[in-house]
Amino acid sequence: MTDLDALSVNTVRGLCMDAVQQADSGHPGTPMGIAPVAYTLWQRFLRFDPQDPIWPNRDRFVLSEGHASVLLWSLLYLTGVRAVDPDYEVLGRPSVTLDDLKSFRQLDSRCPGHPEYRWTSGVETTTGPLGQGVATSVGMAMAGRWLAGRYNRDDFPLFDFDVYALAGDGCMMEGVASEAASLAGHLGLSNLCWIYDSNRVTIEGHTDITFTEDVAARFLAYGWNVTTVADANELDAVERAFHSFRAESERPTLIVVHSHIGYGSPVEDSPKAHGSPLGPDGVRATKRFLGMPEDEIFFVPDGVRDWFDQGIGARGAALRTAWQERFDAYRAAWPELADELERMQRRELPDGWDSGLPDFPADPKGLATRESSSQVLNALAQRVPWLIGGSADLSPSTKTRLTFDGAGDFEPDNWSGRNLHLGIREHASAAVVNGMALTKLRPFWSGFLIFSDYAKAAIRLSALMEIPAVHIFTHDSIGVGEDGPTHQPVEQLAGLRAMPGLLVFRPCDAGEVVETWRVVAALRHEPAALVLSRQALPTLDRSRLAAASGVARGGYVLADAPSGEPQLILLATGSEVSLALSARDELAAEGIEARVVSLPCWELFDRQPREYRDQVLPPAVTARIGIEQASTFGWDRYVGDGGALIGMHTYGASAPLKQLLTKFGFTTQRITEVARELLAARTDAGTSRGERGVRS
Is there a contact between 516 and 505 (Cβ–Cβ < 8 Å)? Predict the structure, then answer.
């Protein structure tokens, strides 16, 4: 270790201590203990240009132990990483300034409590929920392999980036990390390196109380290359470990690093150093131990930032410049492929991307929306080459396999394959898709709606990060039938709809499926969840009904009252829309005028101007019935206090579908009964506004 190496490491430690102390909040111990490893990686190995932090072939650094975010903020400041705007344009200002560090964990600071993608440039993914970062890094490494498989040519090796993830004991305990590690080992992702910061301390105390397994042996069993660094402060040993990773060509690498949490502090290796500021006296004592001025805060010695410029700065700039020159030549030799890459980086679609989408004629028998979605997905994927995905071992049921010629399977002997086999790993599947989306691919994954619960944490992060990941769920209701309550989703729709920024679509027929994909494919900064049926649904006759293009507004009048002045509004999604239409016809025969409103995407409908929403749901028409084979939670805002809800209030039952529909009231007869009760109650009460309505 040179004097400048030691000075730089201790500068990072000092900034971390001071930021946490000034905020009186945060985790100082982990950043201090692992600082030498992060420094060695950034200064000696990471192929990253601070002046262009979104250069496509950059190495990715993921801070999976996101509670140590101050470590990343210090590195971004010292290396001078530039800011990037939401349109992926590099700006002239720094991503993190010293003032940002001084306002760590404060309102609107670019240095929040955990790394947040799209908020601070240089953050490759939002982390904090432990295990999520390492799992997401697997998707990044898979994307790197896919990009190389599709776009590299003999004279133009465009993509060969590596993915590094820094993880702690908590990450190693989380199940999602195990799922992802198993998948990475199976695929032999030799471009992936996890650095396990084994400091043996968590919030409750020493890991001996909960975590005594042999992690290295576990990863060897996964098929990983494993190497160990006995002391995080030995930079030469750390460097040898990274060289071991670079030399490995068939397996991902786990570097087990033994570190001392709160290195040099009076509370070294204690839970206090992990989760609390050191205190003014502790900070001074630690700085004294490190040979730093103990009474100066946010101290950056002369020469340290220049040293980073000479290391990661110069190396990254040279690599990025050479890559750009290579890409310019590639564009001349392979213009169509270069155009794909440039569109991908801007999250744009090819010209004519939707010209081949299928048209589904009216059909009373229809087909399941999982079937129509499969046809649309295959048509779309042929025109958007970077649309790839798979399922959590369920593609025969979710119908998400790409079947056209040349689609292929993503495996070590075919990195350009478009079909991912993710295994029975729902949580990791969603995290992997996030990682691929962060690498600018358009990925999707699929599973049964009931198992969205296993993936919820990663789905939430795709919404928080504002990335266009696509989560496809089939078997959307009690229509699963004989599989019973364990497989019949009830509360899952409400849970997904509760996530800010996630667009949840439950289309009613093949026509709405086409329009759903038309909306979803064009998304740039929003994830979507598609909720699809197992059972066949009638394909509606759009010559008699409103066009399915109303999906783009989230909700629309599908069939109006004959006079245009409805007495009653029937609102439904998915398979229940055809029931509402049937009930409307029966009510019309009795002289009751009803309007049917399809609400395939609540989030889009709620964004519409008040004028449009009032046109669809006139405030004067308070007799409303919401119909959905799911929890009624959230429906009140559409039906109001005087409305009625036909939904699920239990966990379903095991029985054939027709018996279930009758038992739980999803029949034309029940809808018309509730309609008559509502209207009669209004007549009896003189249409008083205080009534509570009907619940079914």
Answer: yes
